[in-house]
Amino acid sequence: MISVTERVATTAEMLGTELVGAGFGGFYGTPCGILSPLYLALQDRAGLMTVTREDNAVGLAAGAALAGRCPVVLMQNSGLGQCVNALASLVSPYRIPMLLVVSLRGVHPDPTPENTVMGRLTAPLLRDLGIHTAVLTPEADPAVTARELYEVVRDPGRPAALLIPPDAFGWRP
Amino acid sequence: MAAVNKTSAIATVIAATDREPVIFTTGYACRIAAGLHDRPNHFYMTGSMGLASSIAVGVALEARRRTVVVDGDGALLMNPVGLIAAGSVPGLPLVHVVLDDGCYASTGGQAVPSHHVDLCAWARAAGYARTVDTSCPEQFADKLRAALADADAPVFIRAALTEPDAPVPGRIDPELPEHARRFRDHLARLG
Fold first, then answer.
1. Do A90 and B84 make contact, defined as CB atoms within 8 angstroms?
2. B39-60: per-residue pLDDT in tens?
3. Model confidence over A37-51: pLDDT tens digits?
4. How close, in Å, is residue A82 to chain B by CA atoms?
5. ipTM score here?
6. Hey, is the C-beta of A72 within 8 angstroms of any chain B C-beta?
7. Statement: the pTM of the whole predicted model exceeds 0.90
8. In the Cβ-directed half-sphere of A138, how many Cα atoms lie within 13 Å?
């Protein structure tokens, strides 16, 4: 019998495998504790370039998409705040395909007050930016999630976001 | 020695490039480039001030082609993280041109507070292999051509602009998804 921590760590590994397998790449990111297991999984499987600010990671991903890739950016939702102009004035109006994997700090079970406001703003912000958004629920099959998101990003060629709840990969407050 | 303004410096970039991807920063740079010679190897970044060099790093990284970014001093100072990203990739074939006019030209000519900032020193500290600092148009053209011929690591060229510009052309065609597609198709044809 495996522990809860091992089981949820496996979710991150499975998602990493499935994102690479679906056709996504290159991978860019700014570290986040919630996303740490996925960050490591992608570093192992495909290489992940750390960019020191989230909007610059979106900029690199935009360049990668223009070069024909189907890139992914990992970020904490606090970093989504840094990205608003990059998404509003570059990614959305030029319709540049990329997947944003965004953690949900400030949402249950994360009680930290410095993250609560952005926790509340994350989904409406993405909606108003016109970015297709999915949530990685505990019931979700990572393979199906990755394939569905790839179809959204690749075929019509548009941005999408996958929101990661705080405990999805075993993070604890 | 001839004087250099933004228009003549961008004309030099266009003359030195052919099929290489060139990313132009927001404001007057992309409008001047589109007015001088609009072609599929150009990407006009009409918004997202400060991110032109990050886009160019992504293109250079994934297309593995010498990529040029035409940046501005105000844009670079708004977001210098592009320097850090470029310098962190060994062997990145990036030619980073900064046209430094000391002002925010498209917003009314306000002064950029950069008197004590050495942009070339920043680039070297971030890991760029070579830097060039020039106000001479001939030297700018020569160094740019040399970088395009052999850059196998990020090169930073600061061109100090000494003359004002003639009236700048109008805004970029608002069909931005079509513009992105044209640039992407160009890169795909390069293979």
1. no
2. 999 999 999 999 999 999 999 9
3. 999 999 999 999 999
4. 11
5. 0.97
6. no
7. yes
8. 6
